[in-house]
Amino acid sequence: MLDKRLSIDDIVGQLRDGMTLGLGGWATRRKPMALVRAIARSGLKDLTVVSYGGPDVGLLAAAGKISKLIFAFVSLDHYPLDPHFRSARQNGLDVLELDEGLLHWGLRATAMGLPFLPTRIGLGTDIARQSAFRAIRSPFDDGEELLAMPAIALDVALLHVHRCDALGNSLTLSPDPFFDELMARAAQKVFLTTEQLVSTEALGMAENYRCNLFERSLVTGVALARYGAHPTSAAPDYPLDLAHLKTYVDSAASAEALAQYRAQYVAVADEEYLTAVGGPVRIDALPTVIY
Amino acid sequence: MNNTDYSLAELLICAAAEAWRDDGELLATGIGPLPRLAASLAKDLINPALLMTDAEAFAVTEPVPPGPRKGYVPLVEGWMPYDRVFSLLWSGRRHSMVAPVQVDRFGQANISVIGSHAKPKAAMLGARGFPGNSVHHPNSFFLPSHNARALVAGEVDFVCAAGFNPDRYVNGRPPPGLDLRLIVTDLAILDFEGPDHAIRVRSLHPGVSFEQVQDNTGFALVRPEFLLTTPAPTPIHLAAIGRLDPNGVRRSVLKGDPPGNPVQKGVPL
């Protein structure tokens, strides 16, 4: 009988210096934050991070874990700019800056085993002038000048789901699945954190199949992480914690503020983190953030 | 002359809403409070066929008011996750109005960095969807502070959105999807109707002169033979804006919420 259950620390133990990690979700939605915090307090270094970025990127940048960032944006939505990301970037953090769709396209190329995919996205911009790109001409009669988006290969994809069984069958219940499926298909290994570890029967897959983003054979391991996306949202289970996001933003005010944030919220076990942010009672009662 | 009192924000919402007039069933996207209200007004008064989203993952039948909904539940008519938004926009079926930090004479736009890309003086969002949007579907810009830091000389610091700059294309020709429409600022409405898509003054806001607009722009603007005045909002427009923005978000966008009417501004008519 397959059993892919692991702990957060087991997963981090399978990561290596210099790896390319894809982080699922989008900005302040369904980020694998429990894993991100575990990486931030680990000894890992020189990571290449691929993300539709939110506080996952800022937190790892502030911890000095990122040697290269492959991204299209880093945003906290309500707070448009992540101060930790800005600070890292303004200190010269190496990046490959993409369009949101180019990032999608690069992951898809790897998922299809292709070296690149052709596109018009990036033509005429400074994105295309980065050294990763090549121009390519359509071999057909149209002869159109296009851009080759290189494949983005992930060593590991880290994704947060709502329900999962011990075999890696998962449900992502939020209204937007974002590009977690492409991250999973572009990765050598996929590790999930899940709000609830349940039996296969309890997934109710016959009804919920549209929330099953990828097959279990892609999944290497799954760890239980209740509130594992906090402070980002994991709708419908819980919304974004705007108050904690402000605490996170304010921690960029000084080195002391950052040290205090790390001591209180990062360098702690998951149970302590949950208590520090107000516990399940507070998170379950958070108002939905409406834009 | 319409003597109704109106704010500059309301004037801009009305002028910007015109961007979507002839767009049929395109997805109307306005990024930022005033462009969003402009798209809302366009759907409400001008072109009800437009597609709109709830700023999450659903298409809705009516514009959703920004901020608290006070019990209002939007009627969902379709699903619009980001994957579908990309599929839709790559086929050209969207018209966005976005608020870049810099725009240049080619209509190239920047929201990524000020200064060098390797070590920016100011890092902002990143290119987001600007590169793909710019070469696939119609785009308009919203610049709430019309000055030479926003409408820059030379080129923008990092070209996120492509424009009509022949030096940036292998054969000198931009892709067929490049379709820049309006630039809405706090001084004027600009368009790309000059020679070779040069940026032209389409209308001046009440009480603003062409010289004032030119003096606050980092490049030469095309002056049309007849200078039009941006139409003042009618009571119908203002009533609709009041309904679409019940929380009054529009009043906190422009510093001091200035009036839009030259009588209120004290400019001789």
Query: What are the segments of chain B in which pLDDT stays under 50 over at least 5 consecutive residues?
Result: none
Total count of helical runs of at least 4 residues of chain B:
7
Q: Which CATH class of the largest domain in chain A is shown?
A: Alpha Beta
Sheet/helix structural class of chain A: alpha/beta
| Portion of residues within helices of chain A | 25-40%
Quote the beta fraction of chain A.
15-25%
Report on the biggest sheet of chain A: 9 strands, mixed
Strand order, largest beta sheet of chain B: 1-4-9-10-11-12-13
Class by SSE composition of chain B: alpha/beta
- Total tally of structural domains of chain A: 2
Order of helices and strands of chain B: HEHEEHEEEEEHEEEEHEHH
Structure summary, number of beta strands of chain B: 13
Shape of chain B: globular
Main interface: chain pair and counts? A-B, 40 and 52 residues
Fold and architecture overview:
The complex is a heterodimer of chains A (291) and B (269). With 291 residues, chain A is of the alpha/beta class. Chain A folds into 2 domains: 5-99 and 153-198 and 210-282, 3-Layer(aba) Sandwich (Glutaconate Coenzyme A-transferase), CATH 3.40.1080; 116-150, no CATH class. In chain A, 30% of the residues lie in helices and 24% in strands. Chain A has helices spanning 8-13, 33-40, 55-62, 83-90, 100-111, 180-185, 205-208, 242-250, 255-266, 270-276, 279-284, and strands at residues 5-6, 20-23, 47-53, 66-74, 94-97, 116-119, 134-137, 145-150, 154-164, 170-171, 187-197, 219-224. In chain A, strands 1, 2, 3, 4, 5, 9, 10, 11 and 12 form a 9-stranded mixed β-sheet that branches. Chain A has a 3-stranded antiparallel β-sheet with strand order 6-8-7, covered by helices on one side. In chain A, helix 4 links the parallel strand 4 and strand 5 (94-97). In chain A, helix 2 (33-40) runs parallel beside helix 3 (55-62) and helix 3 (55-62) crosses helix 4. The N and C termini of chain B lie close together (10 Å). Chain B has a single domain, classed as Glutaconate Coenzyme A-transferase (3-Layer(aba) Sandwich). In chain B, helix 1 (8-17) packs across helix 2 (33-46) and helix 2 crosses helix 6. The mean pLDDT of chain B is 95. Chain B contains 7 helices and 13 strands. The longest helix of chain B is centred in the first third of the chain and has 14 residues, at 33-46. Chain B is globular. Chain B has 269 residues and is α/β, with parallel strands linked by helices. Chain B has helices spanning 8-17, 33-46, 82-90, 130-136, 210-215, 235-244, 262-265; strands spanning 27-30, 58-60, 76-79, 94-98, 102-103, 109-110, 113-115, 120-123, 138-143, 179-185, 188-191, 200-204, 228-229. At the A-B interface, strand 4, helix 4 and helix 5 of A face helix 3, strand 8 and helix 4 of B.
